[in-house]
Design brief:
Strand order of the largest sheet: 2-1-3-4
Helix content: 10-25%
Radius of gyration: 13 Å
Number of helices: 2
Shape: globular
Strand content: 35-45%
Largest sheet: 4 strands, antiparallel
Distance between the termini: 7 Å
């Protein structure tokens, strides 16, 4: 599933991304836009969720809430009537 790049959309668009491990919320409503050609650094103390967020963008971790788009494609999920449905491993790999 390849989307045609839209010049007015960010390359990475994250909205209200949440993730918890064993009841410990490590991502608390993260919003981020990264434009084409932009360089972004994630800074913060150890344990603040930097790596977890990157793992969510790359589909190495599942998100608990929110949405992440890369180049116009919703990452790892299908949006059906406003509800997220996790895609299978083959669809995610594609």
């Amino acid at each position: 599933m390849t989307a045609t790049p839209a010049t007015n959309q960010p390359l990475v668009h994250a909205v209200n991304v949440t993730k918890a491990f064993h009841g410990n919320e490590v991502l608390k409503g993260i919003d981020l836009d990264v434009e084409r050609g932009q360089v972004v650094c994630l800074l913060g103390p150890s344990g603040s969720g930097k790596t977890t967020f990157l793992r969510c963008v790359n589909q190495l971790e599942t998100i608990d809430g929110g949405r992440i788009w890369v180049d116009g494609d919703l990452m790892g999920y299908a949006d059906r009537g406003g509800k997220l449905h996790r895609l299978g491993d083959k669809a995610i790999a594609a």
